[in-house]
Design a protein that fits this description.
845 residues; alpha+beta; six-stranded mixed beta barrel; six-stranded mixed sheet; 23 helices; 24 strands; globular
Length: 845
């Protein structure tokens, strides 16, 4: 047998003999492989190719044609178009979409319009669609789930989501706008699980207003460049089934954004492999130390140093291969389950399970990672003193004095590089600098562990022993600290960026009404009696007060607020202030100010009583006045501008304009009842909102009467932030547990000595708790510092372009949980799983 075969056999026997440590290494290798495999399979499954996208949008058609409203356009491969210079829109024109088709073409009409579907006491706003989806030309847009397709205008098929919301099934009757129809089937949309569509047979949308129409076309040939250009010349927009050679690709389809994504993926995979190396390395090192006598015997019987190295590396090869295969199988299984798990959070419909050859590369990376983790322990085992190993004596090791200096220089340089990338908005440079800074901190961990050990003499026995053990065994402690550092750094970086994005979204959120208020948008002809009828109808809602809001009528003159410093004659005036949209001033009345803006300051009421205006702060002059001008329907000024007393709304109010009633009377501006504001005691449920919409229809209001509930800004990032904290907490607990377990395995002789000198049995638990706490607290604190580098750089990069960018917002709750709570949990977990009985072992002579 060759020496390679012998060393692999010895390595296999060693792996089987120490099953606990082997299982630990397999798990450390397999988990990252599992995670990367699951991400790859899930991403590939949701990544639709051009053919799959086209099938879900236009079925089996070669192209879809729609009227652009212009007489000439130019478009790209996604169908997005620009109107040619010198050519405007003509909304009055009507075009025959089929007029330019070649002979032998087959078409299918696809019509859409907003509609309302009612069943019992529930009414839901939906997309009405007149499409023969069972036609072979439309195959792939919808899939029949139950029943059949509608055949006439009095039949409908509902998407499964809509049918479940209404509580109907095939055979039931529902109201579609102003007529009753029969539900003959349910369908699944291939675009979104959350789609709420009502499909009708031919003629089902003939009475609808604002119907959009497109034509699905089966051509004798293909939709080539000549066909697209000829249709564009008629003002027809073409959505081709496959990209057309000669048309520009969609913006963002390639280029720098792909480079950034690839760089980010390389960073994530690289840091994951680094964590595995940092965690698995000490496991191999401790294993080699536990097998020191066996390896020394191997050397004493004539084996060369390379044979000793191969033995340790062989164990890494075997365990890496097993971990890679186990992780691959688990990742594929998790990727197959991902669409079911994600359906609750994402309505996107995935494609078929997509397994690519790159999965084998992921397994190979797992094996390579195991070999990398075993390299240093293998070299150390090959260089050990045979006599010292056979007698059981330990050598002494000294920490490097150069490594911490190099680490600090790398950390400073990496931070500078990341900030330089932020100034030029280069994401790749930011990522590169962040990696250098993080690797620099990783290099300083042995030195920092040694510094922490110097605090031991000032502490009680258990923490003193824990710090001394960590300092003396830096080759075991430092990699675990570095692994925690890498995990927490990623969590803090992403968490800070997400928290800043959430703060930006909250600050820029534009409410359509005062939060906690329901708005009923009334038809144009609604009178006072109609408003009262609407208010009495909405008994299903928790209404505290109902307030009618009047706005300017569509016809006649309008009043506009002129911001300070803007001309008042023959110029356009922006009607937006501080991010809020002026939808039309409303007359003040009982509760109107509070219902329209959410502000109810007596000072604001006094301005309105004096014939003034309450406006967003940006519309208020420094002297506390507001400039108004009257314009006709075309926006042309009518008469001179006037100045009236004014007051600015507070920042947390809804930014609209409220004018005193006499101002509109003096300027001859007609008003109309625009909406009914309902101040609520609580937010209603979706069932209550659906029933309220039905009640409005029962009260005689037409389909244009819409109920809207302003729920305020909804933070959709909290689940993600909690997931980040949970993920990093698991990594911290895992790394600290590994370090504690290795310390316990490596320190059996020390614990036996403690037992011999009278240490209590509970000391082992307390010692394990502090060993885990020392590792966790050092890693989390350093990781938080490392994670702030890319976070700050990325946020600064958003502030270098146009706009305000993201505000730097630290996720303090997440940081406190990570830095304070997680190390304590790690310590308690280590104490709970550690046996209190101290072992007695025979000490080697």
């Amino acid at each position: 047998m060759s020496s390679r075969g012998a060393t692999l056999r010895i390595a296999r026997r060693g792996a089987l003999r120490h099953k606990g440590r082997s299982a630990l290494v397999i798990a450390m290798i397999g988990l990252p492989v599992l995670g990367v495999t699951a991400i790859d399979v899930t991403a590939r499954t949701y990544q639709l190719d051009d053919q799959q996208k086209a099938e879900r949008s236009i079925g089996q058609a070669d192209a879809a044609l729609s009227d652009s409203g212009s007489t000439a356009i130019t478009q790209n491969n996604a169908g997005y178009y620009d109107v040619k210079d010198g050519v405007g829109y003509d909304q009055a024109r009507r075009i025959d979409l089929a007029a330019g088709l070649p002979a032998g073409s087959r078409t299918l009409t696809d019509r859409r319009a907003a509609a309302k579907v009612r069943s019992g006491d529930r009414t839901v706003s939906v997309q009405g669609r007149e499409l023969a989806y069972s036609d072979p030309l439309a195959r792939g847009i919808y899939v029949q789930a139950d029943g059949r397709a509608p055949r006439g205008p009095d039949e409908t098929a509902l998407t499964v989501t809509l049918a479940d919301r209404l509580g109907v099934r095939p055979g039931d009757r529902v109201a579609l706008d102003d007529r009753d129809v029969t539900v003959v089937g349910t369908v699944d949309s291939r675009t979104s699980y959350d789609a709420e569509d009502a499909l009708v047979g031919p003629g089902g949308l003939s009475a609808q207003k604002n119907v959009s129409e497109r034509l699905l076309v089966d051509l004798p040939g293909t939709a080539d460049l000549a066909f697209v250009q000829s249709e564009n010349a008629r003002g027809v927009q073409v959505r081709p089934a496959v990209p057309v050679v000669g048309l520009p690709d969609p913006v963002g389809g390639s280029g720098g954004s792909d480079t950034t994504v690839i760089a980010a993926l390389v960073l994530v995979v690289g840091m994951a492999l680094l964590e595995v190396v940092l965690l698995a390395g000490p496991a191999f090192a401790v294993g080699a130390k536990r097998q020191a006598r066996q390896l020394a015997l191997l050397a004493a019987t004539g084996a060369e140093r390379k044979d000793v190295r191969r033995t340790v590396l062989g164990e890494g090869l075997i365990l890496g291969a097993v971990g890679g295969v186990v992780g691959l199988a688990g990742g594929i299984g998790l990727g197959a389950l991902a669409p079911t798990l994600l359906r609750r959070f994402d309505g996107s419909v995935p494609g078929p399970l997509d397994l690519r050859p790159e999965l084998l590369l992921i397994v190979a990376l797992g094996v390579v990672t195991a070999l990398l983790a075993a390299i240093l322990p293998a070299r150390a085992a090959a260089r050990q003193d045979v006599v010292a190993a056979l007698t059981g004596r330990r050598g002494t090791t000294r920490g490097s004095r150069v490594l911490p200096v190099v680490g600090l220089v790398m950390a400073a340089a990496g931070t500078a590089i990341a900030l330089l990338g932020a100034s030029s908005s280069e994401a790749t440079v930011i990522l590169a600098g962040s990696v250098v800074a993080e690797l620099g901190l990783v290099a300083t961990t042995p030195f920092l562990v040694g510094v922490a050990g110097r605090l031991g003499p000032r502490l009680p026995l258990a923490p003193r022993l824990a710090l001394r053990d960590a300092s003396r065994n830096r080759s075991r402690t430092a990699p675990a600290v570095a692994a925690i550092l890498a995990a927490v750094a990623g969590s803090v970086a992403i968490g800070t960026y997400v928290a800043s994005t959430s703060a930006h979204d909250r600050a820029t959120y534009t409410a359509q009404a005062v939060p906690g208020t329901a708005i009923v948008l009334l038809p144009q002809e609604t009178d006072e009696a109609g408003v009262g009828r609407a208010a009495r109808t909405l008994t299903d809602l928790p209404v505290q007060e109902s307030v009618p809001l009047r706005g300017m009528a569509y016809e006649g003159n309008h009043l506009e607020v002129v911001p300070p410093g803007t001309c008042t004659v023959d110029c356009d005036v922006e009607r937006s202030f501080g991010g809020g949209y002026v939808s039309g001033p409303v007359e003040d009345g009982p509760g109107v100010l509070a219902a329209a803006t959410g502000a109810d300051d007596p000072a604001l009421h006094r301005v309105l009583d004096a014939g003034g205006a309450v406006v967003p702060v940006d519309g208020l002059s420094p002297d506390g006045t507001v400039t108004l001008r009257t314009v006709d329907q075309n926006g042309n000024p009518v008469g001179p501008a006037r100045t009236v007393p004014g007051a600015g709304l507070p920042p947390d109010a809804r930014q609209v304009v409220v004018l005193a009633p006499q101002l509109l009377v003096e300027e001859g501006v007609q008003t109309r009842l625009e909406a009914l504001a309902l101040r609520l005691t609580r937010l209603p449920t979706s069932d209550e909102s659906d029933r309220a919409q039905s009640a409005l229809a029962d009260a005689g209001f037409d389909q244009s009467t819409t109920l809207y509930v302003e729920r305020g800004y909804v933070d959709n990032y909290q689940i993600g932030l909690l997931a980040l904290v949970g993920g990093s907490a698991l990594l911290v607990l895992g790394a600290s547990s590994i370090a504690t377990g290795l310390a316990a395995a490596d320190g059996v002789a020390d614990l036996a000595t403690l037992a011999a000198v009278g240490a209590t049995p509970g000391l082992r638990r307390v010692l394990a708790a502090f060993q885990s706490y020392v590792t966790a607290i050092l890693g989390t604190v350093l990781g938080a510092l490392a994670g702030l580098v890319p976070a700050v750089a990325l946020i600064r990069a958003t502030q270098t372009g146009q706009g305000a960018g993201l505000p730097l917002t630290l996720p303090w709750t997440n940081l406190l949980i990570t830095i304070v709570a997680v190390p304590i949990v790690a310590a308690l977990a280590a104490a709970a799983v550690t046996r209190s009985r101290l072992p007695l072992v025979r000490r080697a002579a």
